[in-house]
Amino acid sequence: MRSFLKLSLFMTDYIELPHNKKLNLLRDHDGDWPNLDHEKWCLHCGKKFNGHSVRVWKDDQGSLWLECGTPECDGSPIDWADYPWWDESHPLTKKHLKENPNLADDDGEGDNEKLL
Ligand SMILES: [Zn+2]
Q1: Based on the domain organization, do 77 and 93 belong to the same domain?
Q2: 94: which residues sit within 8 A by CB, 6+ positions away?
């Protein structure tokens, strides 16, 4: 008799959550999600997805995790952004930079100019 147990070790346990619970989970992990129609961009795959398409999976400790809505992409909330900041020529990125000019030439701490 052959065992099929080995296969299941590598299968992610995706689950379906009711909309309100999914939204709460998104907010817990990723801050402001007004609703499941809200769209975000994923650095991992570079694409846009919405809350409905986000996948939820459960680990063996019973914790719930979120995964990018793009098929085959395993991007997680740390990869998600409101606009594709990695693409400077994207209209949304341009718009964001225009509204927040102080972000234009500074990617954060600004301490990498000159080190003594
Ligand atoms: Zn992705």
Answers
A1: no
A2: 88
Residues 93 and 78 in one domain: no
pLDDT digits (tens, 9 = 90+) for 71-84: 999 999 999 999 99
Q: What is this structure's pTM?
A: 0.76
Same domain, 70 and 99: no
* Ligand 1 midpoint to CA 54 (Å): 9
Question: What's the CA-to-centroid distance between 92 and ligand 1, angstroms?
Answer: 18
> What domain range includes position 49?
2-82
CA of 114 from ligand 1 middle (Å) equals 35
* Distance between Cα 72 and ligand 1 center (Å): 8
Residue 42 Cα to ligand 1 midpoint, Å, equals 5
Helix (H) and strand (E) counts in the chain? 3, 6
HSE at residue 6, side-chain half, CA atoms within 13 A, is 2
CA–centroid distance, residue 113 to ligand 1 (Å)? 32
